[in-house]
Amino acid sequence: MAMLANTPPPPYYAVIFTSIRTDIDQGYGEMAARMVELAQTQPGFLGAESARQALGITVSYWQDLAAIKNWKAHSEHLLAQQMGRETWYQAFKVRISKVERDYGF
Amino acid sequence: MAMLANTPPPPYYAVIFTSIRTDIDQGYGEMAARMVELAQTQPGFLGAESARQALGITVSYWQDLAAIKNWKAHSEHLLAQQMGRETWYQAFKVRISKVERDYGF
């Protein structure tokens, strides 16, 4: 069952990753699933939300910039980033943002 | 053809709207399309990206907090928000965040 990320009260950080895929599979699904699993074990990880249609959007939430920096430098994640640039994405953007306020139900 | 939002250099703001739908249609598709169209005409609007699978994610980008506040208070948008709360969403979260850095290709 789908769940929204259960983040703590702000402030915290959001990494907004948007992408457009190429049509090359080459292990993409397995790697994407592995990255979600691995991110969850990282210090400072607060949650993530993903959807893909024409465009893919993954927003991951983090305690602070240091946690984001560590995750970006993780060896397995570095390999995934390289495959992303070279093979899986025709376009992507990463936006690092500080969540100041939230509401909802 | 899908396109990533062509945002200016940071800083700017991102409104991260994530939701889980009910199974009630009641004009949802038309209203969602109308809100995208209307948002694009608002002062300070910089772009938007959307995808929905089990979870829906729409990220809209804005010049500053005043632009976000104006859009939130727009009369047609207020009606859409009310329908969202009462009819279309079983859960949603709005996160207002300041984009500090971005990269990609």
What does this protein structure show overall?
The structure is a homodimer of 105-residue chains. Chain A is an alpha+beta fold and 105 residues long. The first copy, chain A, has a single domain (12-98), classed as Alpha-Beta Plaits, CATH 3.30.70. Chain A has three helices and four strands. Chain A has a four-stranded antiparallel beta sheet. In chain A, a hairpin with a 3-residue loop joins strand 2 (45-52) and strand 3. The longest helix of chain A has 14 residues, at 75-88. At the A-B interface, strand 1, strand 2, strand 3 and strand 4 of A face strand 1, strand 2, strand 3 and strand 4 of B. Strand 4 of chain A pairs antiparallel with strand 4 (89-104) of chain B, so a sheet runs across the interface.
In short:
The first copy, chain A, has a single domain, classed as 2-Layer Sandwich (Alpha-Beta Plaits). Chain A has three helices and four strands; from the N terminus they run βαββααβ. Chain A has helices at 28-39, 65-72, 75-88, and strands spanning 12-21, 45-52, 56-62, 89-104.
Fold topology:
The structure is a homodimer of 105-residue chains.
Chain A: E1 12-21, H1 28-39, E2 45-52, E3 56-62, H2 65-72, H3 75-88, E4 89-104
Determine the number of helices of chain A (DSSP H or I, runs of at least 4 residues).
3
Q: Can you give the mean pLDDT of chain A?
A: 97
CATH fold-level label of chain A: Alpha-Beta Plaits
Output the radius of gyration of chain A.
Answer: 14 Å
Helix fraction of chain A by DSSP (H/I, runs of at least 4): 25-40%
How much β-strand is present in the residues of chain A?
Answer: 35-45%
- State the end-to-end CA separation of chain A: 17 Å
- The succession of helices and strands of chain A, N to C, reads EHEEHHE
Q: What is the overall silhouette of chain A?
A: globular
Largest interface, Cβ cutoff 8 Å = A-B, 38 and 38 residues
Major β-sheet strand ordering of chain A: 2-3-1-4
Please outline the major beta sheet of chain A: 4 strands, antiparallel
What's the CATH architecture name of chain A?
2-Layer Sandwich
Give the total of domains of chain A.
Answer: 1
- Please identify the oligomeric state: homodimer
- Can you identify the CATH class of chain A? Alpha Beta
Number of strands of chain A: 4
Keywords (chains A, B): Monooxygenase, Oxidoreductase
Protein name (chains A, B): Antibiotic biosynthesis monooxygenase
Organism (chains A, B): Deefgea chitinilytica
InterPro entries (chains A, B): ABM_dom (IPR007138), Dimeric_a/b-barrel (IPR011008), Jasmonate_Hydroxylase-like (IPR052936)
